[in-house]
Model the fold of this input.
Amino acid sequence: MKCFSGFKKEKMFFLIFFSLGIFTVFGQSVTITGKVTDDTNEPIPGVNVLIKGTQSGTITDFDGLYKLKVAKSDILVFSYIGYATKEVAVSDQTTINVKLESDATSLDEIVVVGYGTQKKIDVTGAVTRANIEDFRDAPNANIGQSLQGTVPGLNIGQVTSAGSTPSIQIRGASTLNGNQSVLIILDGIQYTNSLSSLNPDDIESIDVLKDASSTAVYGAQAANGVILITTKKGRKNRNPVISFSSKFSTQAPSVGLRPMGREGYLEHIKMLNYRDAYIAPEYTVPNPDYDVLEYVDSSVLDPITGELLPNDFDWWDQATQRGYIQETLFNVSGGSEKTTYLISLGLTEQNGYIINDNFERKSIRVNLETEAADWWTVGTQVFGSFTNKDGAEPSLSSIVRSSPLHTPYLENGDLNPSPFNTLDRNPFLTYDVLNEERDNYISANLYSQIDVPFIPGLSYRINFGNNYKTELRYGASEYEASENGAAYKNTRFKLDFTLDNIITYKKKFGKHDISATYLYGVREKKEEGTNASATVFSRLKLGYDRIQLGENQFVSSYAFTEKFNYQMFRLNYKFNDKYLLTGTIREDGFSGFAENEKYGYFPSGAFGWIISNESFMENTDWINNLKLRGGYGVSGNLTGRYSSLARLSTGAAYVFGDGGATVFGQQLSSLANPNLRWERTAGMNLGLDFSLFNSRLTGSIDAYQNTTNDLLFSVALPQITGFSSIQTNIGKMQNKGLEISLTGDIIKKQDFSWGTTVNFSTNKNKILELTGEDVNQDGVEDDLIASNLFIGQGTARDVIYTYEQDGIYQIGDDIPAGFSPGQLRIVDQNDDGIINEDDRKIIGRRDPAYRISMLNTFKYKQFSFSFFLNSIQGGKDSYLSNTNVGISHSDNTIRFNYLEGINFWQPNNPTGDQPLTANGVSNPSVGAGIYQDRSFVRLQDVSLRYNFNQAVLDKLGMSSLSLFLSGKNLATWTDWKGWDPEIQDVDRGIYGSGLVAGGRPVMKGVSIGVNLSF
Done:
């Protein structure tokens, strides 16, 4: 059958070749010229331009230009590695300009792995390249925002303040008290500074290492996953390309909540005092003797008439503004035959929704690489970033609860420090202060690679990376220290360097292909800081520049050094382009661990089977690529630098003798643990990569299970020891999940295309073991209830262990002691008639059940349009958060204002879903939350772009020009009430309590901009 199939193919190829030859000889001959560009309209040199069915053709020059003599009946085939092949019929055309689109499914695509690169087809671990191209037009000041929902298993939180970095997590939590930060590698060097320092336009690609077999090359710090960021470079043999981009974005809250005005606030006071405002016992008939003047602060009454002043001050309106992001980017890149270069400049300015919530970033980057010899390459990647977050914004929670009956100003126009006659201060005191918050980042990566001339395949590379950061925090306020004035000047310096020596050997012989990598490196981290402050100033005109003028002066300083060394060996083996094996072993040493446990060892192994290359798959034309892979590995986690040591703290002060000097004593504050071990996470991953139907459908499926042993945890000690806890290793926890990614070309025509990408992930963790103790001798290991840790359940942050509530007590109900009408009805779990801590139970989880997203991209001629839907779902009892506003009775809280729309219970509103403790009624003996599902679907990103055609570009002398309009968080579908559901991480509540805990609204906005290059 094979011979017959081969014979048919040969006959067909012969007939096609013969027919094309006839048409070429007898057809009308024309000369075709044109230009080949990429997705961004930049020229591509070296593109193969062939007459279909022949080997006749040419290649494009440095400017992407070509010239070829063909027949009108010919079809031209344009191909280049990393781009989708394109065919164009000649017909009557004499100029054929072609734009090649990146082919993300190409088996020759190069992805970044630890300490090197690999072809995508050869990767055995769970390595995913993030799609950042489709989100470059989005109003994202931080590159982390461009990753939200784009990679299954990579969980990115929301950003609610200017210039902030979102939370980042890969495949859920794998530790209790250990380091929970994802490891960031920038151009091969560990990057410990904030992602807010990076210009998103400088980034070429982002690869995510998710399973233990791929992260084990980074050993001690890789248990939480690794993100590899690669910045842009110039291209060889290319004339200088100057690119410019500018965009302006609006920002406003995605939810239009605001505090109550005068009338709503007065009604709120009446509601809190319903026992006086309405007639007993039902409290539904108004009391004609009720006078609101008896329940407000005397400062809001007219001193002459005693009537309520007409104040209706809008604190919210004065404290907020329409935010914006303005971004200007510039870069020039190119290269000669030996040298490539890229120089970029960036300016990002962001004014947040809250006044004085500002962020500015100025950045510069220089990436250079040159071939000093045919066997020697040297280069550098240097950047500086200078951020400014000057200005002290008012607390949003203080703004919400400020009474509209009060105003922030005195009669002379000055700010009133205490306008409410309570302990609450004027939230606008941040207006008239000096506040400087500057971060300066300088990073450099110098490298040299020698390809040993006399040993083909052997290379040596040395990387030296240096990260330096200064933090300046200066402030002065005349309102601090009881209006006597205070000032401070805090400086911090951070420096870390990495020196890596990497030896790589690659060899192909027969059906065998091997690649071996050996690494030896050292890393050192230093930090120091000085804090100076003073209070009580006679004059504060010079602010923090004359702290010595304060009567009470304070100074403190600190410094530390951490050291790491490590070595790693990795072997990749491929046989017959079908069978793949990867083995890794890494040794790590860290100065912060105990004397007996300085070093840890982290092995891993993985396999891959390219099933589509097997002979039995030859006739399966609809399968283009099918690869099965699996891996097992161990990675580690770090403890704090002093966790294993006995530490001293300053104790009580003593005065020896009359008139003697004061001496501060020192006392032991923690116990040493000389056997504190490395936390180890062992993970298994099984994956399937596929490309079907002529690569119209591609995707991957991964299932994983991670088990963390020797969990770092502070175990409580008996008080008789004199210490509260000791850092040690306990127990075991498990983390497992499923990830699916699918990309399909639904429609793919010359003038119109429609592509879709769907990502799905689910993750669940649980504790398998803790201390091993069984105090009650029931044969079951005890939970650590005080730490919210339970065997078989998730982490302390995830598990909701509390009282179960069942509605609100109504007037006339049989109400147990300690509770009153309007308060939550607590379920008596053991039916003993008493509500106490024994009635607590696990009622759900905070982590979601699953995440899903979908990106749709449409292209029609010069237009492209995309929209991205992102969703987090809770399922039955997951992704819950507390929505209890929690009005507790006190002299201050009864005067607080609240956001509009809260459905409080009261006798004439028995269906209200928020509890109310009326004035004069004791607070409930047991507090409880109201946990609700936070599930949502969000229209996260929308983008419309127009790329001008080549004819227009030629007239303007440009190589590319595009205009775009994009939107961010334009719509969110959810049953959640209040601020955005995604920011309610740990019981941040629905309205007021959420603001007190730091919750802020998520921003939505529209962006307009232009991209051009010459």
